[in-house]
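Dear colleague,

Following up on yesterday's call, I've attached the two folding results inline so they're easy to grep. Please treat them as preliminary; we haven't cross-checked anything against experimental data yet. The first protein's sequence and structure tokens come first.
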Amino acid sequence: MKREAVALAFLGAILLVVSFLPDPFFLTLLRALVMMLGAYSLYIAKKVWELEKGFNEAVRVGEKIKKKLDELQVS
């Protein structure tokens, strides 16, 4: 999942850079759309990264709980 977040962030950065090209390349409305897509993809990439981080933390806590339960069952 981290790989997808990095790829999405890279795409967002490229779209933001493209949105600042001079006027002959893009019309104003198209430039605004590309800028919004770039910013939104960076936002989604950040949320995916946070989700991955939270998921990893939940897995760690689950493993600790399982270890404690196993210790209680052995005793």
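Below is the second protein, in the same order (sequence, then structure):
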Amino acid sequence: MSTKRNTAAATRFLGKALRCAGHRSRNGECPGGPRVICTDKAPTYAAAIAALIDEHKLSTTVEHRQVKYLNNVIEGDHGRLKRILGPKGGGFKTPVSSYRTLQGMEAMHALRKGQGRMFAFGCANPDVVIVAKAFADA
């Protein structure tokens, strides 16, 4: 969540997303990074991706897709959250309360979709790992 939608905020967001995915650049090379990044048509994302490529945090071969149809598939995944929170985003008073609430809702959504194996591959009960990660900070 950001109050501004500018290039600095987009760069920070994409950098955090890469770190959370376990992506690290080694010696200027970017093995295991994303092959495609799908965003909406905001010009800030193109500038942010170019900045991350210049900083060697993204591969030069990464493809930036700004196709509305492809982005709608991704946006539809969190349509339930938008429906629950309403048009104004739920009226959270602080960023901390919004973060905790959305983190819990996303964890339950991941459990419902059966995505436990993706987040905790090889664990006997991957759903427990999702719940533990989601509520460790709460």
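For the second protein, one point worth flagging: Residues 9 and 131 are 29 Å apart (CA to CA).

Best wishes,
A.L.
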